[in-house]
Amino acid sequence: MWRNTMRFAAVLCRHLPPQMNPQNLTASLKKMILESAVKFSRPARTIAWSRALCSAPKDYGVPNPSWSAEMMSLYERYSAKGAESWERLPSYKRYLTYSAGGQCLSRLHKPTARLFTRNLEEEGAGFEYTVFANKAERRAVCLFQAGPLLEGPPGHVHGGAIATIIDSATGICATYLTGFVMTANLNINYRNPIPLGSVVLVECELDRTEGRKTFVSCRITSADGSKLHAEATALFVSVSVGTLIGF
Ligand SMILES: CCCCCCCC(=O)SCCNC(=O)CCNC(=O)[C@H](O)C(C)(C)COP(=O)(O)OP(=O)(O)OC[C@H]1O[C@@H](n2cnc3c(N)ncnc32)[C@H](O)[C@@H]1OP(=O)(O)O
């Protein structure tokens, strides 16, 4: 039993992404890994879980057939700028999976949970988005195509869905630039409704950091930049992985 436990823990640690190598893990995370290993250390389960943990997660930030010509054109424009300036960030269905660039931890922790913005399998129905980030300029841009299940006012996107994409885009920007964070404050001014099915740019910029606080501002405009849909400011507070997991 103990040998299986240690073998399972070793498999987990081997598949942690580089920035989460075992020397850098918090005590609470080590405890979680060991507890999970104990829980699943019966031989048959060990093999099944090891396999399940090691398959590649689906990246939702790549084009799919629901993307409009306008969404594709923007995607190609940012992709063409080159990874040295604008890096496309992969997008998975769990926050930790995205942040750590791996998959093991999110599958161990409440495995049936899903990121709110990636909770529909039907392509094009809800949030279709992809994020490019520019480290040197401390900016990120989210290309967002709003599906029909995000309706608020007839034919237009729900204000809560707009808040969600702003929270996500600014959160991804803050996480990319400063590490694990949680939203502490979000202020939004809605300027013009967003038509359902349209593609908009959610442009985020890191304004400043103060200790654990990261301030990000955001503008949502039409794809050609001619119409302002919303403006927002967000405050994120850095947290440990243990806090995110709930330890
Ligand atoms: C891939 C997808 C990315 C998605 C990103 C989406 C992120 C989310 O939606 S997270 C979910 C929504 N957010 C939450 O549930 C967070 C709930 N709040 C909390 O857990 C805590 O209040 C938390 C973590 C924000 C801060 O708590 P804690 O770690 O104890 O920090 P705390 O000491 O209170 O505050 C740290 C600093 O921030 C400031 N601060 C905290 N909250 C606020 C606030 N609402 N307004 C202004 N300042 C604040 C404090 O004054 C303090 O400032 P200073 O260092 O100058 O004294």
Structure description:
A seven-stranded antiparallel beta sheet has the order 1-2-3-5-6-7-4, sandwiched between helices. The relative contact order is 0.13. The two termini are 26 Å apart. Helix content is 35%, strand content 25%. Residues 1-25 and 36-44 have low confidence and may be disordered. It has two domains: 1-55, no CATH class; 57-245, Hotdog Thioesterase (Thiol Ester Dehydrase, Chain A). By secondary structure, it is an alpha+beta fold. Helix 1 (2-14) packs across helix 2 and helix 1 (2-14) runs parallel beside helix 3 (43-54). It has helices at residues 2-14, 27-39, 43-54, 69-80, 95-100, 104-108, 159-178, 241-245; strands at 87-89, 127-134, 139-146, 181-190, 199-210, 213-222, 228-238. The protein contains eight helices and seven strands; from the N terminus they run H-H-H-H-E-H-H-E-E-H-E-E-E-E-H. A hairpin with a 2-residue loop joins strand 5 and strand 6 (213-222). Its main location: membrane. Residues 155-227 form the Thioesterase domain. Keywords: Apoptosis, Cell membrane, Cell projection, Cytoplasm, Fatty acid metabolism, Hydrolase, Lipid metabolism, Membrane, Mitochondrion, Mitochondrion inner membrane, Transit peptide. It is a peripheral membrane protein. Its EC number is 3.1.2.2.
